[in-house]
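Chapter review: from sequence to fold.
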Amino acid sequence: MFLNVHSSYSLKYGVMDINSIIAQARSLNIHQLVLTDINNSTGAVEFIRTCINQSFYKAADEVQKGNTPYLLKPLAGIEFRKDNLLLYFGIAKNKEGMRELNEFLSLHNIHNIPLPDQAPKFKNVFIIYPFIRESTYVLAENEFVGIRHTQLTQLYKHQLLRQKHKLVVWHPVTVADKVSYRLHEYMRAIDLNTLLTKVPDEFKCSNNETLIPEEKLKAYFENYPFIIQNTLELLEACDLSEYFELKPQSKNKFHYTRGGEETDMLLLRRLALKGLEYRYGKDHTIALERLEKELRIITFKKYSAYFLITFDIVRYAMGKCKFYHVGRGSGANSIVAYCLRITDVDPIDLDLYFERFLHEKRTSPPDFDIDFSWDERETIQQYIFNKYPKGHVAFLGTMSTFKDRAIILEIGKVLGLAKDEIDSFSDPTKEWINLKNPVFQKIKKVHREMASMPNQRSIHAGGILISEEPITYYTALDMPPKGYPTVQWDMYEAELIGYEKFDILSQRGIGHIREAVRLIEENKGKQVDIHDFKTFKEDDQLNRILKEGQPIGCFYIESPAMRQLLKKLKCEDYLTLVAASSIIRPGVASSGMMKAFIERYHAPDKVEYLCEEMKEQLKETYGVMVYQEDVIKVCHYFAGLDLADSDILRKAMSGKYRSKLAFDELVNKFFLSAKAQGHSEELVKEVWRQISSFAGYSFSKAHSASFAVESYQSLFLKTYYPKEFMVAVLNNYGGFYTRWVYVHELQKTGAKVHLPCVNHSDAVVNIKDNDAYLGFIGVQGLENKFIELIPDERKRNGNYLNLEQFVKRTQITLEQAILLIRLGALRFTGKDKKTLLWDIYTYLGHKQKKINHAELFNIEQKTYHLPVLESSKIEDAYTELELLGFPLNFNMFDFLKTNYRGDIMAADLHKHVGQTIKMVGNYVCEKTVHTIKNTKMWFGTFLDNNGDFFDTTHFPNTTPIYPFKGKGCYLILGKVVEDFGFQSIEVLKFAKLDIHMNPVAVN
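The token string follows.
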């Protein structure tokens, strides 16, 4: 009877999630519902699956008790609205009907076509129009008019009474009660960007749009039994049972070859065996056995096409495009993936378990994460969309919720609060005042109610779905600004339906590596085999630099926290770096794992293992379960579980297992199996306690290994080709730090770094021999067309000879020319900046006459003799600070009014451990963390006057308020402390130092 139910997926309109709708329907003994969310089908399959799953389990339970089982028939469709007003809603008769609705909506979304006022002709869809007293209805066979019980009096003498079979019960469902109706009003106000009291009635639901008992609804229409009968017949004609078998490993895979699964498997075997010889040589028995085992599981789970499609993507990238990629994540646990060159991580060398990626009992699809350079990923995405049939490939969506603190400000706006008051609610310095403010408390209460609700659909970072059947059987498609069709649900729903996703991701680190290799060939004439990782990891020079903890610019290992960890571990080999890449993750330090690992790393002989099995499996990590693979190993070798169950248990303990009953059965199986191995109950309990403690924080070893490979590649390039590497980092827009830090690193390599110059610079930084010229991209305010035009014109027609010629050849505007002159980009003229500024006004100070043709005669402007115009280094430095964001040829310390540079330098901190010292540091970055008592503390990173890094800790008892005041130099009084060989300063007093002001601004 309920043909028009809205869930919270009707964004900023519906307020009930799908589970709540089903639970309320069950409590009211409702047996049929049609979910019709507004302009989307996000929740349709979720609704069908949840109803069926609940009915199955509850029915079985009721039968066991001797009761008649309760069944809820789920149906679905879409409500279509234009400009917030209802046009009609469609109800799918069957799976084909759902596809028709999804394709209709997709067409309008993808091509940005407004929805028509009249529905098109559908074969497998019922269309319901809302009853409007004045409307004249001409209805097709599949079209009906829905009438509310409050509108029945308007039927008197209405023409629709001549078409009684076209009238159905229309009782929309949007809210659960008065509280959720108020929440609905808030969301409508936010959506319409208006005051809560100004939302028009037609743009929000009626307050009676709630689920009610079916008998009560029928009673409203008791004088119109034909309307009830029409409604029941319509519902009876709908059947979505084809969706009922939805489960992972469903038929939604794409066969790579025309021969289907069997031919896919034969091709995969042939390619894997060929790759096995490339990776391991001939007659490698262990590798072959591992390969055969994996191929058996892949065949059993029918994932051959998934491997082949990923291989095809990588082959295209490496072959035609010459792109560099990194295959990471749990996919690196696979020797098949290694042999197909999807990943460069050797699973045998690192003792990685395939079961972490795929096993016989896995119910969710696996997924590969493939990283490309940030500016190459789109080429790969385009290849995928071009290769596979239209409508069978789409991006994954994501769903954001109202958790964002910015929503608090939105609620404040709809309440009509003043801007200053709203802004104060997000001011951390007024946190305690806000807590006592009743208005703020009201806003917080509203926010808590809506926090978990969907807010807006977006696009996944890189997930792509490829489907054997049209994706529109399961979702309508959006067209976000990225320009590719996108499904209306997220990766979790995709997994439950049975789709494998292909994660085509990007990162700056790969761009650093790719461009550095190119620059080395151009500037040094050398070709670098960046894939020669086995040589890199044995290089003493690289390992020495790693141990020193100064790998600025190198992927994943340059952050302050990672540099500290490398020093504390005295990291000088690949395996230690892999471990460091795992324990650096958020949450690990607070769990105590990081501290325990460092302590045991430095005193391995003092590590006490619970038993020989634990020692054998965890000796590499000194008894700490750093990796998810460690949890699997202990469950397998200590407790005797098979590897599949071991991985399921690992996954369950990380919070990714939904069935508590099934989890409890696995835990019981662990204890019984471990005792059957001859272990005492006390020992088993302790091992289980340790597994439980570590499992939630452990990280995929394969993932860390992939990161560590890339870190070594970056480190190799920085060590042996530092100038080219740092230029590559700058041209790929840096990494963890701001741009000036990398310019500073480039200068430390011995390169002569020049300001932008119209006769030497390109759009990006370039380097020739020892001279590096900053690019025009970094100049604040310089328009894109001139960033490209200036170097392009120079390359076509030669260097610019003077200011006048530069102006004529580029047709530059006065404002843009002034920017370049102030920065010194026209210094090739031999004139100082102020003379050039005078000259540019001579040329462009009046309205410029555009020259659209070459001049027959080159008429030189008259020259004038000017008096000497004075300038200063500090004035130039301020100009560079304004236009580049940093001064290139002026040390930040030189801005200081004081000549004091600190009592000691960073290089000597190890000599003053335990002492209170004074230092002066140039601010680099900071990190805010919360203590156990929920107070704030800070970690700072600085450079001393010699250009060396040092780190500070600001405890809440000595620094009660936010200590940093932007970039500049600070005087630091603090105690030097040492933790496993790493020195830092616990700050006691902290103040920003005064600087010389810009003489131009002062005057």
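Two observations follow directly from the output. The two ends are 80 Å apart (CA to CA). Confidence is low (pLDDT under 50) at residues 248-252.
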